[in-house]
Amino acid sequence: MSDTLAAPAAHTLEVRHSRFLAQAAPVDTTDAALAFLDAVADRDATHNGWAYRIGGEYRSSDDGEPAGTAGRPILAAIDGQGFDRVVVVVTRWYGGIKLGAGGLVRAYGGAAAECLRTGPRRPLVAMRELAVACAFADIGNVHAALAAFGADKRDETFLADGVRLRVVLAADRVDALRNQLRDATRDRARVHDAASSSASR
Fold this sequence. Notes:
Elements lengths: L2 E3 L3 E7 L2 E9 L3 H11 L6 E8 L2 E5 L9 H10 L5 E8 L6 H19 L2 E14 L4 H10 L3 E8 L2 E9 L3 H11 L5 E11 L1
Antiparallel strand pairs: 1-7, 2-3, 3-6, 4-5, 4-6, 7-9, 7-10, 8-9
Helix pairs in contact: 2-3, 4-5
């Protein structure tokens, strides 16, 4: 299971008078990743190399540095640190001394890796969406069970014959919740999969 960042993080590195500022943030969509890039990239800096990974989706950019010396090392740092759903932007201010391809790879990758290493981590948890149906008489017990298992109630509909709820909770708690609802309602509550997803908590 991968981790994401619990909050934005930053790290500064100086290599032979060039200054590198790595900034990272948790993101759930490519639009959010590109919005973060747009917000933190310094247009007056020499380069803003960046990369993001969101599940199977990833992109990276050298932003004018020699091919493969900025974006790919940043992406490698994301993967190497076991992160998902993150974007990292490494801004470089040129200090007058060329670093060479190897030096650039180490600087961009190193700044990104240290930024992620020191940032606050949060595990990504596989989530399940469930539909729960129960009689009015059981709603108190159902609400208590949902709260006990940390289920997030997304929707609650009152019908003529009872209540329908849509909830999201960690996938590894689903079976225990089913058992709790069965016992608490004498097997009257009905639980079905609504959908499957992976999200952070």
